[in-house]
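Sequence, please.
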């Protein structure tokens, strides 16, 4: 790791009413990435809608998604970011392990921040996805913050 901090942040993404990966981060080959913050917020309109299942998952395929360029948190860093990200799956990636899981009200949001030394490591060439399962379609904004 070069110590370059990054953030991948979506614009508004529609959840739909099926399980959908709304964001994915892929570590470059032979270069581990650590994720220390994940967040999602929803733009629901009804206080009586059912909670949305939010899961952070390891994924073995890319699925079909739209490219999303992660940004350096410190613009003075000279190194080029190697990590890539994408959003809004139209063909769902293959997921394996669920790392984190939370039910979130559709008029609310959720942020997970790692305590020191407890970041999620993404091995070189591997993927980490943020997926949601909603009973009603709402828009959301998601982010993953980390270091490579």
């Amino acid at each position: 790791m070069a110590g370059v901090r990054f953030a991948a942040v979506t614009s508004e993404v529609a959840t739909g009413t099926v399980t959908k990966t709304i964001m994915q981060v892929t570590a470059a080959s032979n270069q581990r990435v650590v994720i220390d913050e994940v967040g999602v917020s929803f733009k629901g309109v009804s206080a009586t809608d059912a909670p949305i299942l939010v899961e952070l998952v390891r994924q073995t395929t890319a699925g079909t998604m739209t490219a999303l360029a992660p940004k350096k948190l410190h613009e003075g860093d000279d190194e080029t970011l190697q990590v890539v990200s994408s959003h809004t799956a139209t063909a769902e990636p293959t997921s394996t392990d669920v790392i984190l899981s939370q039910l979130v009200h559709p008029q609310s949001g959720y942020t997970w921040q790692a305590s020191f030394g407890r970041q999620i490591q993404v091995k070189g060439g591997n993927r980490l996805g943020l997926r949601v399962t909603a009973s009603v379609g709402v828009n959301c904004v998601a982010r993953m913050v980390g270091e490579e």
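Residues 15-138 form one domain.
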